[in-house]
Amino acid sequence: MAKQRKNQSAAIHFGPVIKVVLLCFLFCGSAVGYVWQKNEIIRLGRQISDRERRLSQLKDDNYLLVNQYDLLGSQRMIQQRAQKLGLGLGPEQPGQMVWLNELPPLPNQPARQFAGRSESELIQ
Which of 53, 75, 82, 108 can bridge 89 by disulfide, Cβ–Cβ 3.0-4.6 Å? Predict the structure, then answer.
């Protein structure tokens, strides 16, 4: 009978040990997950701030390029550049312009499409 008590007592103490080990794994896993999430939050915050900084830089560059484009495309700048290069360009003469008259569509003809717009939208 003594042998049976020894076997029973070992089996009884084995159950709580498994519970404690499982609880330790649960707490350790939760702690590791918490630290990982915090690191991810910090990493994503840095990514966001870097991208916001890059967006701001691109907006500033875009503003400067639009101003430069407007300046270089102005009539005065083009005339100065043509004179500097000696192209001999000047304002158009009345005889150099050709006016094209387009006939209106026939009533029984369907309206044509141009780049997703109807012909009547383009005329307006």
Answer: 82
